[in-house]
Every structure is written in structure tokens, then in C-alpha cells.
Amino acid sequence: MYATIIMATKTSMVILKERMINKIKEEIPFVDIKPYSHNLIGLELELLAETFGQAEANKVIRETPLKDLGWGWVLGEEEKKE
Known about the structure:
Helix content is 70%, strand content 0%.
């Protein structure tokens, strides 16, 4: 019984993470076009970091155009040099 609950929780967390990342990706084309797109992305990144760790938020920044759209500073000096 407990294994089923743990698996259900892990599955729901994976789905939650995917939804958060998709929300961020949906807003990227509207940066500097739609008002508040920066704010929405920033809030989603903060939620992602609080829920799944800063490494996950950094991964999203690295793997999307966010690094070039003003979020590169979050990655730190080592990441910027690459």
C-alpha cells in the first residue's frame, strides 16, 4: 500500500515539474513583447527552484534561450564562461 502511495506521489511530482517547465517555455517567445512575461517566468523559476532545487531551475535556464534573455546571471560565473 505504501509503495503505491509513494509511486503516485513521484508520478504527480514528475507531472508537476513538466507543467512548470512547459509554462516557462510557453512564455519565452513573449519576453519583451507581452507585459509581465519576465515576471511570470521569474515566478515559475522560483517555484521550480523551491520545489525541485536550484539545479533544476538552472537546467531550464541553460537548456532554453533564457540564458540569453537576462537570466544568465542566475547560473553564476562558471556557467557564464562556457
